UniProtKB/TrEMBL annotation:
Gene designation per UniProt: nanE
Keywords (A to Z) from UniProt: Carbohydrate metabolism, Isomerase
Name assigned to this protein: Putative N-acetylmannosamine-6-phosphate 2-epimerase
Database matches in Pfam families: NanE
Annotated GO CC locations: cytosol
Record organism: Leucobacter aridicollis
Family of this protein: Belongs to the NanE family.
InterPro entries cross-referenced by the UniProt entry: Aldolase_TIM, NanE, RibuloseP-bd_barrel
Gene Ontology molecular function: N-acylglucosamine-6-phosphate 2-epimerase activity
Length: 238
């Protein structure tokens, strides 16, 4: 597997940011999130879940919300932070203001909506990334839904390209597992490192995502969402 961090990428990064990318290479990012109203929806609980993931070998953790981001400081691994807000199509760190708050809370990597859709503050994706660059040293992960999104995000200067929104924006069909085809398409077209994310439910699927061209793999539900995992077993027994 080839490291997707290219010489051009390395030249424009300071050593600390380049080192963060290197730590993710071939590794597992564990998404530690609970939905509003759930029993585990508490920053202290998410911090414990994240700590357990690190004990298991997670290369990084992905957490949602400013309190949760702050709660996982000191784990010794990169923090991918995001802020889900609003009920519009674009709700993953939807504005520049949200992104800067995520950075201030302690995220090493800011995950933002990486699609070409209209944002609540009227800024384009390129405007948002430029604004983050001016005010923060954090890396930027663009959560994309298609190859066109990934190309646009890379051109705008995103450090990481996630397949997080594949199947959710209307540009691609929703696959039952990870969208391996999209990962391969982005790997063939883009130079920025790819984070495979979305519907990765087994270790075998995670390995397949790396083989398809991902730099690293992010898994959430199958590791950190007991309600969903329990429902899988209940359905199998029914």
């Amino acid at each position: 597997m080839t490291d997707r961090a290219t010489p051009d990428t390395a030249r424009r990064m300071d050593p600390a940011r380049a080192a963060t990318l290197a730590r993710l290479h071939g590794g597992l990012i564990v998404s530690c999130q609970a939905y509003p109203g759930e029993a585990m929806r508490d920053p202290r609980t998410m911090a414990q879940v994240a700590a357990a993931a690190v004990v298991g070998g997670a290369a990084a953790v992905r957490v949602q919300g400013l309190a949760d981001i702050a709660s996982v400081a000191g784990l010794g691994v990169p923090i991918v932070g995001l802020w889900k807000d609003g009920d519009a199509d674009v709700f993953i760190t939807p504005t520049l203001k949200h992104a800067l708050a995520v950075a201030a809370a302690g995220a090493d990597i800011i995950a933002i909506d990486g699609t070409r859709r209209r944002r609540p503050d009227g800024l384009t994706l390129a405007d948002t990334i430029a604004g983050i660059r001016e005010r923060s040293d954090a890396l930027i992960m663009a959560d994309c839904g298609s190859l066109a999104d990934a190309v646009a995000a890379e051109q705008a200067g995103a450090d990481l390209l996630g397949t997080t929104l594949a199947g959710y924006t209307g540009e691609r069909a929703k696959t039952t597992g990870p969208d391996l085809e999209l990962i391969a398409e982005v790997a063939a077209r883009c130079e920025a490192p790819i984070v495979a994310e979305g519907r990765i439910h087994t270790p075998e699927q995670a390995a397949a995502a790396l083989a398809a061209g991902a730099h690293s793999v992010c898994v959430g539900t199958a590791i950190t969402h007991p309600a969903t995992i329990t429902s899988w077993f209940v359905a199998a027994l029914a």
